[in-house]
Amino acid sequence: AEVIRVYLPPDANTLLSVGDHCLRSRQYVNVIVAGKQPERQWLSMDQAILHCTRGIGIWDWASNDGDGEPDVVMACCGDVPTLETLAAVDLLRHALPDLRVRVVNVVDLMRLEPSSEHPHGLGDKEFDSIFTEDRPVVFAYHGYPGLIHRLTYRRRNHGNIHVRGYKEQGNINTPMDLAIHNQIDRFNLVIDAIDRVPSLHVAGAHVKEQMKNEILECQRFAHTEGFDSPKFSDWQWPESRKHD
How far apart are CA 156 and CA 132, in angstroms? Predict the structure, then answer.
C-alpha cells in the first residue's frame, strides 16, 4: 500500500495530468490504465488537474441531484466505463426526467480504500458524502468487478454497490458489442439503475424494454456491418446539459 498507485484517467486531459504527476514522483510503482484510441474530452485542463489532484469527485455538470439526496449514484472508473456511464445517464435523464442522478468519477483507484489501509484512501465520512450511506450505486469499472468490492467492503453502503466490469467475454468484437458482452454498456447500466431504485420497479418497465431492444439492434448492426452504428459510436454529451 505504501508504494502502489493505480490511476484510470477518463479522458486525454486527465491522462496528461496523471502522466505529469507520475513522471515527477519517486519511490512509487505507478500503474496508468489508458486506451490507445483518441479520447473524448470531458474536462478542461484546469478541471482535469483539480479532478486528478482529488482523485475522485462528483461531476456536477453531469448530475441533477442538486443539493439533495440522489435516487441513484452512477459511478465510473476508466475511459470506456466513463463513456458508457455518461451515455447511460443521458438516457436516464431523457426517459426519466424526475430521477435524481449523481455521477461520480474515480481516477485514483486507491481512493476507494479506507484511509487506514492506504495513504490515498478516503475517510468514511468523505466516502459516505460522495456515495451516500444508503442509496443504490451502479459502478462501471475497467477491470474485474471483484476488486471494487474488495476495496469497499468495509464501507457503510457496500451492500448497495453493484459493480459492472470485465467478465472475460467477447473476442474480436466492435467496441460496443464487447461492452455489451461484458454488460458495462449504457443500456445494461440503465437497466441496473432501474432495477435498484424501488420507485422505478413499475414505472421504469417500459424503459427497460426499450434498452433491451437497443441492445439487440446494436448487436445486429455490428454483426451485419462489422462496425458499430454511428448512433452509438458518435454519441456526445448534449450541449444543452453542460450548464444544467
Answer: 9
With H, G, I as helix, E, B as strand and everything else as coil, classify residue 6: strand
The per-residue pLDDT for range 192-210, each reduced to its tens digit, is: 999 999 999 898 999 999 9
84-115 residue pLDDT tens: 999 999 999 999 999 999 999 999 999 999 99
Half-sphere exposure of 176 (CA within 13 A, CB side): 23
Q: What is the rounded (10 degree) CA torsion for 129, 133, 135, 140? A: 70
**Which H/E stretch holds residue 211?**
helix 205-225
- Whole-prediction pTM value? 0.94
Closest CA to 106 of 81, 124, 136: 81
Residue 105: C-alpha distances to residues 9, 44, 55, 159, 232 (Å): 9, 15, 9, 20, 21
d(CA 55, CA 7): 8
The Cα 47–Cα 49 span in angstroms is: 6
Indicate the residue type of 211: M
238: closest CA among 85, 86, 77?
Answer: 86
- CA 207 to each of CA 1, 74, 213, 239: distance values in angstroms, whole numbers, following the listed order: 43, 17, 10, 23
* pLDDT (tens digit per residue) in 136-190: 999 999 999 999 999 999 999 999 999 999 988 777 788 899 999 999 999 999 9
